[in-house]
Specification:
Elements lengths: L1 E7 L5 E6 L6 E2 L3 E6 L11 E3 L3 E2 L4 E5 L14 H4 L4 E2 L16 E6 L2 E6 L37 E5 L20 E4 L18 H9 L2 E4 L8 E6 L3 E7 L5 E5 L3 E3 L6 E9 L4 E8 L1
Parallel strand pairs: 7-8
Antiparallel strand pairs: 1-2, 1-11, 2-7, 3-6, 4-5, 4-9, 9-10, 11-12, 13-14, 14-17, 15-16, 15-18, 18-19
Length: 285
């Protein structure tokens, strides 16, 4: 499954929509949303929301900010938007993912597995991410000078293009929002609660199933640990990337050492012998 809508509106009018393109119910108790605030490589400051409930096949699940107190410190959510939620964060629970603004990366996780991401973990884009390749798809700031291009992740409603069939499971790659998202004004919630997708039940879904069928032990880990990857599929190659997207480990072994890794968050990409791949997060404490 993947994010199908993103709403970064006025006050605490914040919402996310998750779409289930599969032919099965999905139990959301295994999933969480994490916010990586202002270029952080940790979700500690941005907050984590553990989900609950179920998404039926071809259906969506709407999560909103829960700040309904009109006298609250951080503003409040419009009652009409709040009423669209299948799940709302607790009132007054700052900081949480749904206190996002345009320069926060939002990640959908299943355990340590990255399922989808909006933005780029570890990058502070200034105000937001844009469609301007010359600036690296970031807006910049008033201090550094704003870059040209359309601002996507702040003051906008974003809808995933119908051609997108799977999420972005690499949290540290370049984020060009124009490739997969269409923009609407931040007050346009008409599409929230449904999604149109060209999805089918062929290779896209089978590949995503493979993506969640390997695990790394131990995780989280310490710098002196050795790692083991366990999978139901034959593994051809393992690559480990830091938050700058630099490859720090490349091996054809399912056991490898953390000798080259310091404290931080890494992305582990596993290439299977049949040509498919899977990605997961590795944390070194």
């Amino acid at each position: 499954m993947f994010f199908s809508e993103y709403l970064e509106g006025y006050g605490q009018n914040k919402a996310l929509e998750i779409y289930n393109p599969t032919s099965s119910n999905i139990d959301l108790s295994q999933y969480q949303i994490e916010r990586y605030s202002n270029g952080s490589t940790s979700s500690a400051a941005g907050g984590i929301t553990v989900l609950s409930g179920t998404i039926a096949p071809g259906d969506v699940f709407v999560i909103t900010n829960g700040d309904t107190d009109t006298s609250g410190q951080f503003g409040f959510i419009d009652a009409l938007l709040f009423a669209k939620a299948d799940f709302s964060e607790p009132n007054g629970s700052y900081p949480t993912p749904l206190h996002m603004n345009g320069n926060d990366a939002i990640v959908l996780m299943k355990g340590s597995q990255v399922i989808d991401v909006i933005g780029r973990v570890g990058e502070d884009p200034g105000v937001c991410w844009t469609d301007n390749a010359a600036s690296g798809f970031v807006s910049g700031t008033s201090a550094t000078g704003f870059n040209p291009g359309t601002w996507y992740t702040t003051g906008q409603t974003l809808i995933r293009k119908s051609t997108v069939k799977v999420g972005d499971d690499v949290a540290v790659d370049l984020f060009n929002p124009s490739l997969e998202w269409d923009t609407l004004p931040p007050t346009d919630w008409a599409n929230l609660g449904s999604h149109t997708c060209d999805c089918n039940t062929s290779s896209n879904i089978s590949e995503k199933i493979k993506n969640i069928n390997f695990s790394i032990y131990p995780n989280p880990a310490i710098e002196s640990d050795n790692f083991r990857i366990k999978s139901n599929f034959a593994i051809n190659e393992v690559n480990v990337y830091n938050i700058l997207s630099e490859r720090v480990i490349c091996t054809d072994k399912t056991n490898f050492s953390a000798q080259k890794l310091t404290k931080g968050t890494y992305i582990v990409n596993v290439l299977f012998q049949d040509g498919s791949s899977g990605t997961s997060k590795l944390v070194i404490k």
